[in-house]
Amino acid sequence: MLDTGLRAAEFVSLRAGAVNRRSGLATVMGKGGKQRTIRVGSEARSAIARVLGLRGVVANGDPLWMCYDIRGAEQGPLSTHGLWMPSLAVFCLSRLTAICRRIARFCAALLARTRH
Length: 116
Fold this sequence. Notes:
Layout: H1 8-12, E1 25-29, E2 35-39, H2 42-55, E3 66-68, E4 74-77, H3 80-84, H4 86-95, H5 98-115
Antiparallel strand pairs: 1-2, 3-4
Helix pairs in contact: 4-5
């Protein structure tokens, strides 16, 4: 999803059904409450489909990204704070698809830079 140009808040606010699986277009609420349309690549759309498949039944409008505890149990919607937590990076590295692994490496690198 890095190639979409989404801000962190836009990324975590994505809802199931927000990304059109055929066209790859999604409408997101940006800064200042402005709507914008983004294009999501086919690789990211495939990753989203796999994530939703892992979660089971997900209704349109439900949060797309969820937080998980160390046992893998859902803890609620992902927040911008949770996006940057090292535990999420570890979870993504061990449990999700290649695209999520890239996001986790990027987040871990950012976290490492901010701690030094």
